[in-house]
Amino acid sequence: MSNIPIRVNVVFGTRPEAIKLAPVIQQLKQTYGFDTQVILTGQHREMVSQVMTLFNLTADQDLDIMQPQQSLTDITCRSLQGLEDLFKQLNPHLVLVQGDTTTAFAASLAAFYQKIPIGHVEAGLRTNDVFNPYPEEANRRLISQLTQLHFAPTTQAVQNLKNSGVLGEIHHTGNTVIDALLSVAKKHPKLNISELNHNSYRLILATVHRRENWGEPIQGIAEGFLQILKEFPDTALLLPLHRNPTVREPLTQQLGNHPRVFLTEPLDYTELVAAIDQCYFLLTDSGGLQEEAPSLGKPVLVLRTTTERPEAVEAGTAKLVGTKAQNIFTEARELLTNEKAYQTMANAINPFGDGHASERIINIIQGYFQR
User: Fold this and answer.
1) Known active-site residue 356
2) Which of 20, 79, 144, 349 is most exposed, with minimal Cβ within 10 Å?
3) Is the pLDDT assigned to residue 45 strictly greater than 80?
4) Is 122 a catalytic residue?
């Protein structure tokens, strides 16, 4: 294919996918020999648009599938139908997906139905519990069985893929989220939250959104936050709220009246990087933040009982604390009172990459089509 541009369709629908694919898309567009089409499913809308603007990206195609109260079945079916038509029209040599969203699974299945090779960015994450996280664990396992090029972020992810008996090529690339994070962090973004005086408090950045934490676990998480604030009057909590009312309503009800809790709308990525940089540590159920925060020297307490990123726990950059209020409080208190424990986590080496994952991915794709 030396004289024919390699047609790559990059498909995504959520903000995490957009962030992690942005440096890959930039690298593709800067590299001779690629014809790159960016396809949005519309699984998320506003949050993806913010990322596209930040990284100076535009969508070539937009399925615009988003509907109020959409189910996983809705997302899958509408994505499959729309992508079938697009793939027949565009005839790509490779479809590139990221992670474990329903969009990524649907795009992989649509590509498989058209016998188009699939490249999977951030392949090989596993918890070995198909319902935790749900539906992500099943999505990424299913994608792995269809993929020709696995771009694994860590050596553990490489081993997970080998253990899964996948048929495609496995490549250890590092995680593209570190590429994105470092490109934004070097601009030294500022966090401007009304009434929040960074000099007066040790700021704790918190995020809660995962399906497995809906209901009773959210109640325990909020109670843990309140215990921390009560015991440590020099702390404040910054909690950007997910747009889903199932998440935001109980958190607002329990935390909304506390003078040192700052509830905000979702931060754009620049603001999020600034918040990571300026906080003392993180309390989160996010997978991406487990990867990003260590690059800026911030400990992560993970509000989950399992993680598909055990490398963070093994490296000492993150610790699983679950959703029970007392456990959350105990582990947070350790970081707030024990300087040695804090510095041990803050100075541990991030196992997720060096900021050059996107370059490696592009080189691998070129090699694949030059054989």
Assistant:
1) no
2) 349
3) no
4) yes
Confidence class for position 1, pLDDT limits 50, 70, 90: low
Determine whether 211 is an active site residue.
yes
Percent of the chain beyond pLDDT 90? Answer: 83
Please indicate whether residue 198 is annotated as part of the active site. Answer: no
* 213 has a pLDDT exceeding 90: no
Annotation says 242 is catalytic: yes
Q: Considering the candidates 45, 74, 212, 242, report the single residue annotated as catalytic.
A: 242
Report the pLDDT value the prediction gives residue 202, as an integer from 0 to 100: 96
**Which of 45, 211, 258, 333 does the annotation list as catalytic?**
211
Instruction: Give the mean pLDDT of the chain.
Output: 94
Confidence at residue 371, expressed as pLDDT on a 0 to 100 scale: 83
Stretch 5-18: mean pLDDT: 96
pLDDT of 361 higher than 80:
yes
What does the pLDDT look like over 229-278, one tens digit per residue? 999 999 999 999 988 888 899 999 999 999 999 999 999 999 999 999 99
Q: Which of 150, 209, 260, 304 is catalytic?
A: 209
Residue 354: strand pairing partners? none
Per-residue three-class SS string for the chain:
CCCCCEEEEEEECCHHHHHHHHHHHHHHHHCCCEEEEEEECCCCCHHHHHHHHHCCCCCCEECCCCCCCCCHHHHHHHHHHHHHHHHHHHCCCEEEEECCCHHHHHHHHHHHHCCCCEEEECCCCCCCCCCCCCCHHHHHHHHHHHCCEEEECCHHHHHHHHHHCCCCEEEECCCHHHHHHHHHHCCCCCCCCCCCCCCCCEEEEEECCCHHHCCHHHHHHHHHHHHHHHHCCCEEEEEECCCCHHHHHHHHHHHCCCCCEEEECCCCHHHHHHHHHHCCEEEECCHHHHHHHHHHCCCEEECCCCCCCHHHHHHCCEEECCCCHHHHHHHHHHHHHCHHHHHHHHCCCCCCCCCCHHHHHHHHHHHHHCC
Which residue, 303, 208, 205, 222, is CA-closest to 256? Answer: 222
pLDDT at 187 over 80: yes
CA distance 358 to 301: 28
Residue 67: what residue type? Q
